Amino acid sequence: MEKIKLMSLYTDFRKDMSYIEKELERSVQSSSPIVRQASLHLLKAGGKRIRPIFVIMAAQFGTYSLENAAKIAVSLELIHMASLVHDDVIDDSDMRRGLETVKAKWNNRVAMYAGDFIFSRALTSIGNIEKAPVHQILAETMLEICKGEIIQIDFQQQTDQDLRDYLKRIKRKTALLLSSSCELGALSADADSQTVRKLKRYGYFTGMAFQIVDDILDITSTDAELGKPAGSDLLNGHITLPVLYIKDDEQFKPYMKRAFTGVMEESDRQAMLRYIRQSGAIEKAQHVSDLYLIKALKELESLPNGKSKKALTQIADFIGQRKY
Amino acid sequence: MEKIKLMSLYTDFRKDMSYIEKELERSVQSSSPIVRQASLHLLKAGGKRIRPIFVIMAAQFGTYSLENAAKIAVSLELIHMASLVHDDVIDDSDMRRGLETVKAKWNNRVAMYAGDFIFSRALTSIGNIEKAPVHQILAETMLEICKGEIIQIDFQQQTDQDLRDYLKRIKRKTALLLSSSCELGALSADADSQTVRKLKRYGYFTGMAFQIVDDILDITSTDAELGKPAGSDLLNGHITLPVLYIKDDEQFKPYMKRAFTGVMEESDRQAMLRYIRQSGAIEKAQHVSDLYLIKALKELESLPNGKSKKALTQIADFIGQRKY
Questions:
Q1: Which InterPro entries does UniProt cross-reference here (chains A, B) (predicted)?
Q2: What is the pLDDT of residues A108-155, one digit of tens each?
Q3: A residues 8-27 near B, CB within 8 Å?
Q4: Three-state secondary structure call for residue B69
Q5: What does the pLDDT look like over A142-165, one tens digit per residue?
Q6: CATH architecture of A6-321
Q7: Domain coordinates in residue numbering, chain A
């Protein structure tokens, strides 16, 4: 299969996406210099803008209004950004996407309030949308994301967890927000309820796959590709899907124990990563991701053909083979 | 003047307030044991529930519905609670209202996510209110509160600030949320726009007075009365109104310098507090608070008489003479 570049999928929606990018920048303007700088730093660090693109594409299945869709897209991307800043404080992470994190470049308190600030901006962005379900869905989504972050604490370094625990966790961490992106995009354009439901499920399934692949890449990629040390999840005590398949392996246990201390000799970390890579755990995790992607594509089948359906299909394919 | 007990003001609204109390408890239920415990701990720590009572009373000036008013009251009280948890992380505070803070009893990460969680619950509570202005006002209020917290960082330990800087800060820290409590309470009951405006201004003025008195009490009260060390504001680098009046006093400067290190000998702290108390700064600050309360009472004048107007008047009086 030809390698897909995510950005090429955005071609048809380039104008809309650049409008959203400007709105994102506008939305984090602040009279406090520190916050403005911290927020812009975050924004420039980029990311794939998958939430906005999902909103835009889902909205194509109804009566599309860029202005309405953009409000929702900005809101969802900001919620995502806010949760990243807070995660970095919790995980004590210094690097993300190859750039210093806010908490490293400034400090924890700036990161905390920058997160709160961006969170609030997310609400302002949809403040004047006159649809109660939109507010309700967003509030529920934020609530579940928070619950997820908290449950992540409960589960840290806990080795007696199973596939169900993991799937519940990544649902809250990633899939829900992608699912809501599709749902709210479609809702904002008054798409019919069947279509809304299908897009919501598409978002959920691709979200699950996306996070599994993310967790795989944390083990299979180089530090340079990740922009942070490979194996960070384990060093932070997070047990992801590949590790779930190998955590009871007697030879692996001592690695895990050392990883949980949060610091590891460079050679030890590399040996641990090699051990996981050759264990077959990666392939098992990849398989689960593939199953989700099949489900995602199935949801699209009965939707009307067009640029948007094509792009959503390609995104699912992209997730299946992404290397970054 | 007879000493007013705040709780006695609530007599006429006791049933409504206990309904809100139950809703508050219900709203912080969570499947995560840590979060449930942390949130309940916060809730039990209490506070004066001034935001809910303002909502209830303001709603009396329209077509009162306890159910609607309660949603807004819960939302505003939760936003207040969430900002307290995050403040405690920032200020590294171990005690609040005589109880251990969440960050002390658990840790910073629990406090951070408990704050985020409560924040999200606040949104869920008003999620199904079908009035766009309510969402807009709440979003704006949260935004301004965040900005305030951030500006507080910019101003920490900065001695070249004036009355205007201080007033702007306490507006965001306290007055806005009280102002929005009155505004949203009245709006939720479809009060006429003149009434909404007057109540909003009443909430703003009492809020300004409330925070000034709070800042005075941080200096004039005992540790036992405060449930935390007196002078904490200065130890955390926050320059409040009384200190603003004395900060350029040559004999006071060395105290302030030592306070800004965050640790002070017990006898030194007591001497500093005595020095401020006898300087006349407290009386000057009290005078500013009194001016705000006069403005607050003026807003009430033209509103229809009744239990609610009487109680709002008494609250303003209470703030003027409160000792805790």
A1: Isoprenoid_synthase_dom_sf (IPR008949), Polyprenyl_synt (IPR000092), Polyprenyl_synt_CS (IPR033749)
A2: 778 888 888 888 888 888 877 878 788 889 888 888 888 787 777 778
A3: none
A4: helix
A5: 888 887 877 777 788 888 889 999
A6: Orthogonal Bundle (1.10)
A7: 6-321
